[in-house]
Design goal:
two-stranded antiparallel ribbon; seven-stranded mixed β-sheet
């Protein structure tokens, strides 16, 4: 029987702990009765919630009771770190006891996996050093800054690495669905994973995380000239020559402007404009029926083929694919009328 510990911390989203616990602990007979399929597979997981205190206060007013205290938790086959409520612009601080426990259990042969921001705790433990990993798209810059030895691949939803493939990371919050299906597939077989997916209506997320990412523009940097430039660019997305215009408005020599802009935003002005335009195009694709050529023009691109190539390079999807994936489905829209 596969023994799985679900780490439960004060930062842990309750849904990210209890949802996986439900999924992994669901009785095989119950699943078989729903699907009508013969018992070809058995999950056989022993699930325990592990924490430093008997009852752990979760973010946003919830509390979770654990089955075992961290000090007494050893010998896991799998340890799962759930999504954590962490500020995206602040270096995370984790309890040394938790980090040491994670290192010790991994050294004893446990598979360590994490979803969403739980990957930052794995990064802090050092077990991901030199290994590939992913994280929530909004935390990729923080992750790179804090854990530069990790080979971060933030566009991917699920990444496996390490000796004997015992390090598994998943992207944003709902990717714990993918992570649980992966664990079920690995330890109980493909048939068991398919059965759980059917009963709980789960899909593997095969989209590039870049498609979900929003452009987070840093505004709290204290450079008033660059802040004014950012505000002007945001209000003038379709301008024909935005970089030249904003440099002229700044009153700075071009080289000084470019240096200061990149220093506080992390982007060249051209890349910054491209990100603003792609974000605007995403909104238009989600909310309107305008043809792609019109959306390209509304975001500053008269060359529609170039816009299509840039959009796919940035998001991993064509504009048409993005529209199909992210606008409200017709059947749902009809119910909301």
């Amino acid at each position: 029987m596969t023994r799985i510990f679900l780490l439960t911390l004060p930062e842990s989203f309750a849904s990210g702990v209890l949802g996986p616990a439900d999924l992994l602990a669901t009785d095989d007979n119950f699943l078989d009765r729903i699907t009508g399929e013969p018992q070809r597979s058995h999950q056989r997981f022993h699930i325990e919630l592990v924490g430093q205190e008997p009852t752990v206060p979760a973010p946003f007013g919830r509390a979770v009771s654990v089955d075992r205290l961290l000090a007494d938790a050893e010998g896991a086959d799998v340890i799962y770190v759930p999504p954590l409520a962490l500020p995206p612009d602040q270096t995370p601080a984790f309890h040394p006891e938790v980090l040491e426990w994670l290192r010790r259990e991994h050294g004893s042969g446990a598979l360590i996996c994490a979803a969403c921001t739980g990957t930052l705790l794995m990064g802090a433990s050092g077990i991901l050093d030199g290994e590939p990993a992913t994280t929530h798209w909004a935390y990729s810059e923080l992750f790179r800054r804090c854990y530069p030895r990790v080979e971060l691949q933030p566009q991917r939803t699920l990444v496996v690495g390490g000796e004997e493939q015992r390090l598994v990371t998943a992207g944003a919050h709902a990717s714990w669905h993918d992570l649980m299906l992966f664990l079920i597939h690995r330890f109980a077989g493909a048939a068991a994973a398919r059965k759980v997916a059917k009963v709980f209506l789960l899909d593997w997320h095969d989209l590039d995380q870049s498609a979900y990412a929003c452009f987070r523009t840093p505004l709290q940097h204290g450079d008033e000239v660059i802040l004014g430039a950012q505000q002007w660019l945001a209000a003038n997305v379709p301008h024909a020559s935005p970089v030249e215009a904003v440099v002229a408005r700044s009153g700075l020599p071009p080289r000084s402007f470019l240096r200061r802009f990149r220093q506080v935003t992390g982007h060249t002005p051209l890349r910054y404009v491209q990100q603003l335009r792609i974000d605007r195009a995403k909104t238009l694709l989600e909310e309107s029926d305008d043809p792609v050529e019109s959306i390209a023009a509304q975001t500053g691109y008269e060359d529609a083929p170039y816009f299509r190539r840039l959009f796919k390079r940035t998001t991993g999807m064509t504009p048409a694919e993005y529209r199909r994936s992210f606008r409200t489905p017709a059947n749902v829209a009809a119910l909301l009328e």
